[in-house]
Design goal:
The complex is a heterodimer of chains A (834) and B (227). In chain A, 53% of the residues lie in helices and 17% in strands. Chain A has 834 residues and is α+β, with helices and mostly antiparallel strands. In chain B, helix 5 (145-158) runs parallel beside helix 6. Classes of the chains: A alpha+beta (834), B alpha/beta (227).
Chain lengths: 834, 227
């Protein structure tokens, strides 16, 4: 019966299901991507690490540790990494890079991918360098050209395309340049204060049990503040990082699916209303209400299954595109094998959620009385008293929460996500209704008839206006918010570039260079805004608890990393404009030499190492113990281009300690910046420079890459909105033809009909885009106020463009799907069946 | 008397699945301005097609139709739409009101399509005349069948048509309501001096006209005039 009843409606039923196809496709694509990625990580973890064991430290190991390090592995390599300026001799360009000075045959698994290919091995044989491909492009350099690092020049022997475990994003800020380790000393860059990373790579015979080895030497390494990584630990860490990433993509896909389901529910609602007379006839013929309900439930299950299957296979195809979209974030080329598990999950998920959503309109079938055969109008029952719809709403919410729990592995997070989804939907509905009400209430009655008719069409019986506004609106909200956030971040950094504000930072300045650098800066007509001394130190103990004790006794709750990291500390007698004391009192200088200094900690850092004002911290200042008391906590605006510090000492304590300097200046133009950078790098090759222009372009680049991924995924929501729109236009085809033919009969020209239809879709698109933009404004404002703690200034031009683009797209899709209506001759009005 | 509708040698054929179906064949008649005509005949006799062609809703296969001395065959669809808007009124069996517009707005549509100004009062008067002065702002769904057909009547007269085509105007109404609507139709027609052409099965309605054209198998089999 269900099959026979659907006979005349199969194409319409097919339309309903199209709304869920994209959501399922997005989900299956991300599921498959996730599974393949996990598989790839397991397969390729060795080439991600490049060795069996990697040990890392940020200081030169002592003799005892050095002995241990030299005793490990069957093969070993050493690497030192640090940030430095390089100088392209041919075109005189300068750029901050990450220098990697390598010795040995690392990588043991995978390779340094270079052009020419053999350069990855051969650069080690002479004074040669491998330079990152983006740098080569940026500075128009060629293999054979020379670069200068510190005091020494190197010939570029190859273009570095890829190094083990690195992705595009991680190398954007400071692109890597490889040189042989034996030339490092001659560059003159190994000076006090230089922040150098020490890395040791080991390869073992296949018989060695690395895990057993690591558990034996691990505690010693940890005690010495060293970090280590094995293939297994990399597997875990990389999997965790990408689990978060795929989880995020899955949730965006899930939103697209939910939107599609709202579209399905709305379409089924209209379908059932049109079927009331058939249902009533069946009831007259003695069919039980449960049987009529089953007929339509079977139909819905059928379309849910068909939609899910189609979506799953479309998703498998889309999965092929994901690696292209995500290539900048991946440290390797992922495989795109068909994942039958993902397909099965997608189909089951799609089926359950379609049926759940469709049940809401379907349950009204139970209340169709045989009397409806005699009465045309269908009186909806008072649904507030019917417990079943409420039970269904609860089931849907539970299903969303359970799905989120499955993805996020945490009930609080899942409940937060589901709650946010519910609130967003409710807000969308409210804003959509409010906008419609306002437009209806204040629509000028003096406007041309065509405009009024176009608007009135939104209220046609069985309209899906609200559903369409919601689906289009959510997509617009996604894009609008994304754009605003991206812009806010960029603006925060650009703001610093305003007149007089610091926009260039020179660091690693040795004490002997300080005065002459200041004169060079002035010579170039640039102001010296700040000269900041920096002293490196470590925490020895906190309130008498040392690292060893904290390790042994977890009850002390001082995290071990508090003792491990090297701190860069400054001393001064005043607060900066970007700092505010939130607890205690800021001490400007010690009263007399030998007094215990009262230091100031950044509030979040204090929270991380579990200390408060009045606590005592003993520092190891390069061999010299210094006991301090926390005198104050500061709130710091980290968004400014200036060195900010977690710990600030008062004056009168660290002046004699070994230190280096940071100088902050303002360069008016990019040309002045380039000239000054060239002069500094030539005279002081050890000094590194960060200029705001670079930060801005790096930030812009990274945000562009991230937003491309989000836009790609948000595209599913928007496309679902458009599919719901197409389905809705086609579902209302009969009514539209009737209206259009009537107007033609009454004398409307083809152009007038076209304008009315176009305006209807314009209003629909405009209300949807307007709803989304309003939401995105509210969201961006909240983000600006609470997350970025900055002022909010909307990007009106961009939002206007978004508004116009969505409205135009809606008009085009609407008109394209209405073209048949425009072609119908008016004689149709005299026929019963159109 | 002036001729408002002149039909000569009119034929209409449709092609479907390789077969040609002749719906109307060699129809000839003319209608004088101000007269009332009923077109009657069994189902499938071609009544509705004849009405549609006469009103310029479609093109004939052969022959010519002159409406208010304008030859419709030579006009494009948009030009015919303009003729309908200026000279023709319509009443349909299933009322054909726009569901998104109120009763008053529905009556205003033909005039608004011509971009005429100050039409609200005239539309209101017409609705008053059909007894719906208190239902101006009701939507079609809020009106009964009889009320909807009265709105349709008011709309048909709103553009002061020279000729009014009615297709089974009482087909969807009960007998009591039908009587009221028929009376209103004839009264309004007389007041406006409009030519009225009705396609109907309703003998009572047909009896109210001055002339009855009988169709069968796509041809006129009788053309009866009352003295």
């Amino acid at each position: 019966m269900a099959w026979r009843d659907s006979r005349r409606n199969r194409s319409r039923l097919l339309l309903f299901l199209s709304s869920i196809i994209l959501g399922i496709a997005a989900l299956v694509a991300t599921f498959s991507f996730g599974y393949n990625l996990r598989h790839d990580i397991n397969d390729q973890a060795r080439t991600l690490v490049g060795a069996d064991l990697v040990i890392e430290d940020n200081r030169q190991p002592g003799p005892e540790m050095q002995h241990l390090l030299d005793s490990l592995g069957n093969q070993r390599s050493r690497e030192r990494t640090f940030a430095s300026m390089i100088y392209f001799i041919k075109n005189q360009g300068t750029r901050l890079v990450q220098v990697r000075a390598l010795e040995g045959s690392y990588p043991y698994y995978g390779s340094l991918e270079t052009t020419p290919a053999q350069a990855g091995l051969e650069f080690r044989s002479g004074r040669q360098a491998l330079v990152d491909k983006t740098l080569m492009l940026q500075y128009g350099a060629r293999v054979g050209d020379s670069i200068k690092i510190g005091e020494l020049s190197f010939a570029i022997s190859g273009i570095l395309n890829k190094a083990p475990g690195r992705n595009e994003i991680s190398t954007t800020a400071a692109p890597p340049v490889y040189i042989p380790l034996r030339y490092l000393a001659q560059t003159g860059l190994m000076q006090k204060g230089s922040r150098i990373g020490y890395r040791y790579y080991y390869k073992y015979d296949s018989a060695t049990d690395i895990q057993k080895l690591v558990s034996a030497i691990g505690p010693r390494l940890e005690k010495a503040g060293m970090e280590y990584e094995t293939v297994e630990s990399r597997k875990k860490n990389t999997s965790r990082a990408f689990d978060d990433f795929t989880q995020f993509l899955t949730l965006i896909s899930f939103i697209a699916l939910l939107l599609g389901c709202v579209g399905v529910a709305s379409a089924i609602h209209i379908y059932i209303r049109e079927k009331i007379s058939s249902i009533a006839i069946l009831r007259c013929l003695g069919v039980k209400s449960s049987q009529t309900f089953s007929i339509y439930l079977i139909q819905v299950t059928g379309i849910g299954l068909a939609g899910s299957i189609l979506g799953a296979f479309l998703g498998t195809a889309i999965q092929q595109a994901l690696p292209v979209v995500l290539k900048d974030f991946l440290p390797f080329q992922p495989t795109t094998a068909i994942s039958w598990l993902s397909i099965a999950q997608g189909i089951v998920l799609g089926l359950i959620i379609t049926v759940l959503f469709a049940l809401i309109p379907l349950i009204s079938i139970r209340n169709v009385s045989p009397l409806n055969t005699l009465r045309l109008s269908f009186e909806p029952t008072r649904r507030m008293r019917d417990p079943l719809p409420w039970l269904l709403y609860a089931m849907i919410l539970f299903f969303i929460a359970a799905f989120s729990r499955w993805q996020m592995h945490s009930w609080p997070k899942a409940l937060f996500f589901s709650g946010s989804m519910l609130v967003t939907f409710l807000i969308l509905v409210m804003v959509a209704r409010l906008l419609m009400w306002l437009a209806h209430r204040f629509f000028p009655s003096s406007w041309n008839y065509l405009w009024r008719q176009g608007f009135a069409n939104l209220y046609r019986p069985n309209n899906q206006t609200i559903v369409l506004i919601i689906t289009i609106g959510l997509g617009a909200a996604f894009i609008g918010t994304l754009y605003s956030v991206q812009n806010m971040l960029i603006r925060r950094v650009s703001m610093s570039a305003s007149a007089g504000q610091p926009n260039m930072l020179l660091f690693d300045i040795q004490p002997a260079q300080e005065d002459s650098l200041v004169s060079l800066t002035k010579q170039y007509g640039l102001p010296v805004i700040q000269q900041v001394p920096i002293v490196t130190m470590r925490i020895e103990d906190i309130n008498g608890i040392s690292a060893e004790k904290a390790l042994k006794d977890s009850a002390d709750s001082i995290p071990n990393r508090a003792f491990l990291s090297e701190l860069r500390v400054t001393y001064r007698d005043s607060l900066l404009g970007t700092e505010k004391i939130v607890a205690g009192r800021f001490e400007t200088s010690v009263k007399s030499p030998g007094d215990t200094p009262y230091i100031s900690l950044e509030e979040r850092y204090a929270a991380r190492i579990h200390v408060k004002t009045g606590d005592r911290i003993r520092f190891n200042v390069q061999g010299m113990p210094v006991t301090t008391v926390i005198g104050s906590l500061r709130k710091v605006d980290w968004g400014r281009v200036q060195p900010n510090f977690r710990v600030v000492f008062p004056k009168g304590v660290l002046e004699t300690a070994p230190q280096f300097y940071v100088l902050i200046t303002h360069v008016p133009t990019s040309e002045a910046s380039a000239r000054f950078q060239q002069a500094v790098v030539r005279r002081y090759p050890n000094i590194s420079i960060i200029d705001l222009g670079l930060i801005l372009s790096v930030l812009d680049d990274i945000l562009d890459k991230i937003s491309f991924v989000i836009r790609f995924m948000a595209g599913f929501s928007i496309c679902t909105g458009l599919v719901v729109l197409i389905a809705s236009v086609l579902i209302s085809r009969y009514q539209r033809i009737q209206e259009s033919v009537l107007l033609r009969t009454l004398g409307a020209s083809r152009k007038q009909i076209l304008i009315i239809t176009g305006l209807e879709f314009f209003f629909l698109g405009a209300l949807g885009a307007g709803t989304g933009i309003l939401l995105s404004l509210a969201g961006s404002w909240a983000l600006a106020k609470y997350s970025f703690e900055g002022s909010f200034s909307p990007q009106w031009t961009a939002l206007l463009l978004l508004f116009l683009a969505i409205s135009l797209l809606t008009i085009l899709i609407g008109l394209f799907n209405s073209r048949e209506i425009l072609r119908k001759p008016p004689l149709e009005i005299l026929r019963r069946e159109v | 008397m002036d001729t408002i509708l002149n039909i000569r040698n009119l034929s209409k054929t449709y092609s479907s699945a390789g077969r040609t179906l002749t719906v109307l064949s060699h129809i000839n008649f003319s209608v004088e301005a101000g007269s009332t005509v009923a077109v009657v005949g069994p189902s499938g006799s071609g009544k509705t097609t004849l009405l549609g062609l006469s009103a310029g809703l479609d093109r004939s296969t052969t022959g010519s139709i002159e409406l208010n001395h304008i030859t419709l065959n030579e006009l494009s669809e948009d030009e015919r739409a303009k003729v309908r808007n200026l000279y023709v009124g319509f009443i349909f069996q299933n009322f054909q009101l726009l569901p998104t517009l109120t009763a008053l707005e529905n009556v205003m549509v033909p005039l608004e399509l011509r971009a005429e100004k100050n039409i609200r009062n005239r539309s209101r008067e017409l609705l008053d005349r059909v007894g719906l002065g208190d239902r101006l702002h009701h939507y079609p769904a809020q009106l009964s069948g009889g009320e909807q057909q009265r709105v349709s009547l008011a709309r048909a007269f709103s553009n002061n048509p020279k000729i009014l085509f009615a297709d089974e105007p009482t087909g969807n109404l009960d007998s009591e309501t039908s009587e009221k609507v028929i009376k209103l139709l004839f009264d309004l027609n007389e007041e406006a001096g409009t030519t009225l052409i009705i396609v109907t099965h309703n003998t009572e309605l047909a009896a109210g006209t001055r002339r009855i054209i009988r169709l069968k198998g796509g041809s006129i089999i009788a053309d009866e005039r009352k003295s």
